[in-house]
Design a protein that fits this description.
This protein has helices at 25-36, 40-46, 52-58, 64-75, 81-89, 99-107, 120-129, 131-134, 143-146, 153-163, 177-185, 197-205, and strands at 11-14, 21-23, 92-95, 112-116, 139-142, 170-174, 189-192. It folds into 2 domains: 11-21 and 95-206, 3-Layer(aba) Sandwich (Rossmann fold), CATH 3.40.50.1000; 25-90, DNA polymerase, domain 1 (Orthogonal Bundle), CATH 1.10.150.240. It is of the alpha/beta class. The chain has a 5-stranded parallel β-sheet, sandwiched between helices. Strands 2-3 form a two-stranded antiparallel ribbon. Helix 1 crosses helix 2 and helix 1 packs antiparallel against helix 5.
Length: 208
């Protein structure tokens, strides 16, 4: 990994889930179980997040209704689209610790951008719920809007081109190792966020 130091970056690029916004999928499971009248454990046993339908939903290739239909079939619960949506949006568990202080501080020194694998219902929800926090980003690159998702090379190339900053001058923060590796393979400086301290520590090394 390229060492971080003052002057080593011209822009910061943040994943959203578990870097800026806290995510708790157990909240979705609990909500769906409540509507279905079953134990959460029975849904956990059947719930696989990264399915083909999940990936297609994240790049805007299938509708919310089609994705919820796939969940209805795989989980074996007959709840409505509205009930699925309620649980789907319940995963947002607030801001990550310290991020509300770190983002405005960083934004005073260089432009901030976000790049997230996400879907239309989540975008609608977090744009309203966390609008003030997300306002620190100059641009949000969202998989469901750009039709590309991490860790694909094409996705990182698209975002770098849109930012107009050399890849080697962009520091990218993500909680998933495969996304960090994907970014590094395209020339970005990758920071693997495994705890809330990691963002603050990296910013300190950058002199922020």
């Amino acid at each position: 990994m390229t060492p971080l130091s003052p002057g080593s970056a011209d822009a910061l690029l943040f994943d959203l889930g578990r870097v800026v916004l806290d995510i708790d999928f157990s909240k979705a499971i609990a909500c769906w179980a409540g509507h279905a009248g079953c134990r959460p454990e029975s849904i956990v046993a059947s719930f696989v997040r990264d399915t083909e339908a999940y990936r297609l939903h994240e790049v805007g290739k299938i509708s919310d209704e089609d994705y919820f239909a796939s969940l209805r079939a795989s989980l074996g619960i007959g709840i409505s689209d509205a009930q699925f949506l309620e649980g789907w949006n319940a995963i947002f568990a607030g801001e990550m610790p310290d991020i509300a202080e770190l983002l405005p501080r960083a934004a005073k020194q260089m432009p901030l951008y976000a790049f997230s694998n996400t879907n239309r219902p989540h975008v609608d929800y977090f744009s309203k719920e966390y609008g003030d926090l997300l306002g620190h980003f100059r641009e949000l690159y969202l998989s469901s809007s750009i039709g590309l998702r991490k860790p694909d090379a094409e996705a990182f190339d698209h975002v770098v081109a849109a930012m107009g900053v050399p890849a080697s001058r962009i520091v990218f923060f993500d909680d998933l190792a495969e996304n960090v590796e994907g970014a590094r393979a395209r020339g970005l400086i990758g920071v693997h966020v495994t705890s809330p301290r990691d963002v603050g520590d990296a910013l300190k090394k950058l002199g922020i």
